[in-house]
Automatic annotation (TrEMBL):
This is RecBCD enzyme subunit RecC. Heterotrimer of RecB, RecC and RecD. All subunits contribute to DNA-binding. GO terms for biological process: double-strand break repair via homologous recombination. Gene3D superfamilies: 1.10.10.160, 1.10.10.990, 3.40.50.10930, P-loop containing nucleotide triphosphate hydrolases. The gene is recC. Residues 784-1002 form the RecC C-terminal domain. It comes from Nocardioides thalensis. GO terms for molecular function: ATP binding; DNA binding; DNA helicase activity; exodeoxyribonuclease V activity. Belongs to the RecC family. The keyword rRNA-binding does not apply.
Amino acid sequence: MLTIHRGSGTATLARALGALLATPLPDPFAKEVVVVPAKGVERWLAQRLSHRLGSGPRGADGVCAGVEFLRPRSLVSLLTGTEHTDPWLPDRLAWPVLSVVDASLGEAWAAPIARHLGDDLAGVERELRQARRYGLARRLAGLFASYGVQRPTLLTAWREGRDDDVPADLAWQPELWRRVVADIGAPPPDERHLATCSALRDDPDACALPDRLILFGHTRLPVTEVELLAAVAETRQVHLFLPQVSGALWDALRPVVAEGPVPRADDTSARHARHPLLATLGRDAREVQRQLATVSAVEAVAEADPPGDHLLGWLQADLRADQAPADRGDRQLRADDRSVQVHACHGAIRQVEVLRDVLLGLLDDDLTLEPRDILVMCPDVEAFAPLVHAAFGAVPDDHPARQLRVSMADRGLATTNALLAIAAQLVGLVDGRARATDVLDLLAATPVRRRFRLADDDLETVARWVATSGVRWGLDGDHRRHHGLSLAENTWRFGLDRIVSGVAMPEEQVLLGSTLPLDDVGSSDLELAGRLAEALARVQAAVDALAAAATASEWSEALRVHVTSLTATDYDDAWQASQLDHELSRVAADSGGATLTVADVRRLLEDRTAPRPTRSNFRTGTLTVSTLVPMRSVPHRVVCLLGMDADTFPRSITVDGDDVLARAPLTGERDARAEDRQLLLDAVMSARDALVITYAGMSEHSGQDKPPAIPVGELLDALDATAAEPVRDRVVTRQPLQPHDERLLDAAAPATFDPAALAAASAARAPQPAQPFLPHPVSAPDPDLTLDDLRRFLTNPARALLDHLEIALPFDVDPPSNDIPISPSALEKWAVGDQVVNAVLAGSSPDAVLSAELHRGALPPGDLGAAALREIATSAQQVVTKALQHRTDNPVTTDVTLDLGDGRRLTGRVPDLHGDTLLRVTYSRLGAKHALTTWLDLLALQASEPGFDVRGVVVAKDRLGIIKPVDPDLARSTLAAWAAARHDGLQGLCHLPLETGRAWALGRGNRSTAWKNAMKKWQWDRFRAERDDPAWTHFLGRQADLSRLTDLGTLAETVWRDLVPFEQGWFVR
């Protein structure tokens, strides 16, 4: 006998189930079998039943024992006797489908499949389409499995040759199904289903079920499960505990659904729902009633607890009674009613921050509320999981969120198991480019780091080596050939050879064979270079082995061996290796020797590592975050829906064009978007005290308004009509962009629990007294200074002050490039030219220098690189030629020691004095920095040797600059003035940016001209505006106006006054 227990919530159904189970089975050793839709429901139900079963006199301290929980698929497998060997499960069925497809591509009926797989094509296009093989087979296996569960009569007709009703473009499916059935040789699902139903009716002992079978919490039942339950019910007690939001609607629909399943287009049940949410969100619940209408059953109604006297409770009462919302004068919303909260936020990060504050507020307001009473559900857990971890775990110790333990459910295996993620990365390297960043990411994975003892500093060093050695992509030349390129330059082998040879010898433009040693590797790096070489050798071995694999078994074994060789796990993570072995063993066992391509394996791993619910992460006493499915209908005091954005909910499911059922669906057949809507309705009914919804209501970039998900909008419409007056403005909160917005202080209590955000908001609102430029007195610099000290100050006073204050600014590190250089940028050309000029002037052979540059990896390979180098070499040679005109064979380095007065002493060394010429050579264009630093060295020489006239010569790429000899007294006074300016500038910011100061001085006393010149350098230059320098931005803020440099004119006169007249004589040679 089948008994349908109806109730508006699972809590009331659980009480009824507890009462039923309190009466034991006749066989004391038999286990009760309870079928639940999801693992989260199982965990909650087991805990709930423990309050009734086996409890003592005081109650609530019992135990749920002797109960076996099954999933619907497990029940079907039990009834059909295929618990471990069902060949019709999609993952197993994919392999015979793949085999039949491969064998049939040349036949006429399979022409659509052949076209899809590019069987009539050649070259790259064929290869790309052939990569769809396993993906196509797995998709078709899923469709066939769906047909067998939801419409078995379709498969029966196909098997019997009756396929006239199939659309013409899908006419290949029946023949494919018949051949797959013949290939497997086992009874197909439809035949097995009929046989099982018949056996259950004729032979009660045909399956190992107890006298009582229970199904709990289902909101959708396919036709095959209904027929199996009907068959079991003829010889056993079957109890179906069915959550139905509205008993009134159930009663009203009896005559409407009595005929059973119909084409969905003909279903009129929604018209009979008076409450709009039951009509728009409750289709799954109506269709399950239609599925059960043709089965003989006894009904029992589980009485529900009365809902609360608040907005959420009023909505739930209307839904239970199927009462159309209308203005209710007796429902005056209290000022403190926060039972329904909808928060419109700027993006995902802000949603999580708002949710954190809302939950902390609820916990603070009600001391009886505990984290286990709160459920957070999210349509896209994978996207929000790292944000949740950061918001609740990566906060300071004084933040109250540190006290909350958060557990994440439904994560993908690739997220929770690093070894499976590494397996996927290795597969990606086989037909991928093995880019610099790809392999660095692999080396940074925790198990790989543990295997090769790579600390954070080691990874930074390796990344620097990769960038400077010229690694771009490809393991070696052979690996690149798969991509139509056989060059060895800029591969990992090329870079590794440079790194390893760099341990043995410096660069010095000397080739070791065809390898230029990397100059950035010291003898202390020998061990790290060895570990890197070993890691790359194992990566190469893994890629070679995987590339040689053909069958699924070979792929599985190769992955198992080489993931093991590349990784090491600690005691806590040892389970990851077992799980990897289990998943790969399943693939090998199910595949039947099928041949797979790299793309097939990639798709297979994606399927195996997709997000899945796990029982252990539910109801553990922590705040649980999961998708909407596992905990559907499970009551909690607070239910939160996170990320209910218009573009993610309901799921944007593209209808499969090959799905026969989707062409003309029947009621009761699965529809993911309708399921999501039902999930929202279930969430509304399962919240007892509060329902909290967050969504992206504004763009985090532009602030433009964005609508909520359509079902959320429908919920808001219903809420507007639930109370005495519209409540949307009370329910919806538009959150500010930043967590420290001072508007958060406008309420009676601050709307944030973040101490740092609260302090920032309070500070923003408080009157701002004038603040000293520096928060505390700065120690005076040492009166003794070096030429380098003075040079650093003059070229960037803001940076010098930061160094004196021991402040290090954050900076972005550019990741290694993945692109082979094709057309060098101006900066790359400069780097090569500068290297050539310095090396030739240092005495290296020009030919050796140019050969070294071709092997450095910074230039394009082959003829492109040779052409680029010729251009650079021509320009560099011109600079060298000019420089040689002013050089002597024996340049001198002069030590300088000067007493500047006021207790200051200047010391340093001035190199490259060639006779009476102080020579400076640069491959750059002549600029203010070259002029000022050369002038500084010239002043130091003239002041220290008064009787020796020295001129300064700067040979640059674009011109030759000459600074005439300087009077020694002028030199000494200028140096003293600069030293004094530095002394003051290290205790308060010196307003003299290098280029801007020189531009001002070039105005030569004309303030209008000086201002215009300075503006060009400070803020008008699109590419190199000096105000954008991070050091100046730190002190003056972003986009600082030139007027902020209050002492610019005076300081420019001090530094540049005497140099500018000498500089005016500069000319091009």
